## 1
Amino acid sequence: MNTPAAAPVSFREALKFWFWLGCVSFGGPAGQIALMHEELVVRKRWISENRYLHALQYCMLLPGPEAQQLATYTGWLMHSTRGGIAAGALFVLPSLLLLIVLAWAYTAWGQHPWGQAILWGLKPAVTALVIQAVHRIGMRTLKARWLWWVAGLSLLGMIWDAPFPLIVAAAAFTGWHMQKQHTLPAAAPSHGSAKTTVAADGPAWLDDHSPAPAHTLYSHARMIQTGAIGVALWVVTLGALAWLLGGHHTLTRMGGFFTQAALLTFGGAYAVLPFVTHAAVTQYGWVTAAQMMDGLALGETTPGPLIMIVAFVGFLGGHSQAITGYPLLGGIIAACVVTWFTFLPSFLFILAGGPLVESTRQMPSLQGPLQAITAAVIGVMVQLAGVFARQTWLPGGWHMLPDFWAFVLTGLAAWLLIKQQRSIYQVLGLCVVTGLVVQALR
């Protein structure tokens, strides 16, 4: 006997789920994508396996946080524009509020000896997390010699300050060429997340052969209209900042830069961080390199996309420059401005491009460019690991003696994460305790 499809889901029920997801989505993009797969595909049967994977592949090709974009896409697929906006916003808002609180606590007590002890313990954990990400993605992706070459050349490009969009474009072209030559290695599950098992309880509400909802049907005019609305929102908000505050004001510069970061960075948060770190530390001076590491450590302890570290950068930039005359208020406003400009393009990509993507579900895969871009991101992440390792092991610079115990703690954290498969929070907790013990013994 055929099992009936899952019942339709009300918008109210979906809202509860997206809010819950935003509060519990710890573990970075891999964990978030896996959690959504388990809930949406396996347990709730709201969307089929193939539809989920198709949406995930599209989101991985986009610049920006793929887990948040995947939530936005699924929300849009289920309940049109309002569903996409609700899903994407609720995926971000809990972590934004938490990071504002943590950033305020950091400015208030970050220089206290015990606060410094906690941060000393967190920095090796952050370095180990980047190393773990390199290992995890590398083991899944680097299945052919040419992919190793792409990763290596990407690393050299970052060291030589090559433009990141150029690195991504070159990798995508290489992958496209290799796909034409039929030399691709077998693809592994994206981000180690989406399992290949299908829910055993019958077809999903939005199954492979379900009638296409009206809002998912492609319309050239509707895509242009949606795109125009998104661009108009960007022009109005950035233009208002420039008109009210001036083109060189911190908030205006943050809006322009984080729009650029959202549009030109591929491969997830760890690929974005080198670009953001260089600009925020060197070009604009919103934070120091040490503060950037502290922000990443705090970001790892909150739910939501890891790229929410930009809210920490915005808060510290607005707080230190007291852009409203009140440091705390300036920090809150800057964090919200940065978040708006970072995520606005992601909503635009999904809401405008979703119908076009749905119309391509039967088209050939973009596996080649996707594998090559992922290989290039590995090179970028290796460079980022080097930057963080230098800040952790040589906090005083190359002319000072290295911090031996920070080096040992980094190695221990990496071993626990990679070999022992310990959770991020177990490792973060161990490193924090170690930092407090070291502080007590000094």
Note: Residues 114-186+217-441 form one domain.
## 2
Amino acid sequence: MNALELSEILFNALSFSSILILTALGLAITFGVMRVINMAHGEMLMLGAYTAYVLENPQALPVMVRNFGKLFGAQWQTEFGFHLNLFVAIPTAFLFVGFVGYLLEVGLIRFLYGRPLDTLLATWGVSLIIQQIVLLFFEADLKALHLPEVVDGNWEVVGVAIPKLRMFVVAVAALCLFAVYLWFFRTNLGLQIRAVVQNRPMASALGISTRRVDSLTFAFASGLAGVAGCIFGHLFTAKYNMGPDYVVEAFMTVITGGMGSPFGSVASGLMIGTGESVVEKILVNATMSKMLVLLLVIAFILIRPSGIFAPKERSYD
């Protein structure tokens, strides 16, 4: 294996691990604070990709308006459309998907705390509804997103091609991890979140609004998934049913790292992302590599069900 092949494996592993970490981090945060398994998390990722599509493709909004008009038997048309870029799409996806997550928590999930099976089934139903709404507005064809020239192409360093987009993905993931750290350990809200995680009844008795903490935490976790989806859409394409394709691996990442442990999700995301990239290069088959890595993850979970960095049991009553 030469230097070119090694660099290809390295950059593929870093970029895939970065997106996996962003997706899994939101699941780990929501479970750690609220003990909620959100089956609609994949659709939050999909909404991030479609947010980027609407902002970057001038034809997206006219198609949306036309299809919305068909619901009422009308022929609505507009020529207005956005023509922005990835750098605008990422923060917009975070805010929009975070707002959708906030509405989901306030309108549904907060009424189902302490009922994990009901929460799982309800969020699964929400995921199907979101898929059908997006299908209705944007149709089923794949949506290609456009890259800004500044992150397109490669850098040549001592004969090794370094993909600009993949390095940008790593930088975004690192920035998001830093933001999570600042949020948890350098803000009043982060202090309240850690108090709720440690002892929910005591935090409530001290005057902390646990409902406010839950809704803002869920919104933040959903926003992270929106950022991951925005990046996924630029690496590949956006489609209305893309959520389940990636959220399964995100759940595996969270379980392997330890349910409710953000640090564990980061570590397991690096391991799974790197493992898939290495095995894919050896087997030259993406499907077989994914299957083999997931089988190894399942074997690990059977041996250590609590995960690598499982947090101590806490009170969530």
Note: Residues 3-244 form one domain.
